[in-house]
Amino acid sequence: MPTPRRPGRDPERLAADLRLEVAALGRLHLHGSRITRSLQVGRPAGPRVSLALPTRPSHSRVPHHDPYADDPALRRDAAARLLEAAVAAGVARHAWLARDGEVDLHDSDLAWDAALRAAAAEAGLEVATFHVVTRHGWREPATGDEQQWTRLRVRGRHTGAHVERLADALRDAAQSQVCTGSLVCIRSA
Description:
By secondary structure, this protein is α+β, with helices and mostly antiparallel strands. The protein has one domain (about 10-55, about 65-189). The chain is built from 4 helices and 7 strands, in the order H-E-E-H-E-H-E-E-E-H-E. The protein has helices at about 10-30, 70-90, 105-125, 155-175, and strands at about 40, 50, 95-100, 130-135, 135-140, 145-150, 185-189. A 7-stranded mixed β-sheet has the order 6-5-4-3-1-2-7, sandwiched between helices. A hairpin with a 3-residue loop joins strand 4 and strand 5. Helix 1 (about 10-30) packs across helix 4 and helix 2 packs across helix 3. The longest helix has 20 residues, at about 10-30. The protein is globular and about 45 Å long. The model is unreliable at about 1-10 and about 175-180 (pLDDT under 50).
């Protein structure tokens, strides 16, 4: 008997979209840009709404405060606002956390997954998938599925141009997000 699929989940297309998302993050790294840690809802490599999360600049000596780190209720509220924005924008409800580093799971990855699922349940919605995406690959915490690349190559003029546009949009969104981490800074792309 075949395994029932969750609504809105086409594994082959989703894997291809996640590959393009990883390629775009890798392209940002090649240009010397840091990856702004962000929570995103939509379609990987496609339309989305995002919330840039607070990060400590590597050159800063100022103490860093992440308001979401120790407050599950604040994470759930942020996730609820992001889901509301996704519904208003009419984008798919795949969710992912884009960040620097390897695809190994961190406690904060799981905390954001739980916050998104709790916010979706409260609103009577379903988050189709949740992934952690880095410049090296992606991982789905719920299933343990992952894909990593040592050197990801994107072939084809059309696909390469799409990855460049996506990387440019991610870079512009990160640079224009002066109020990083604020719920009023949820952006559509």
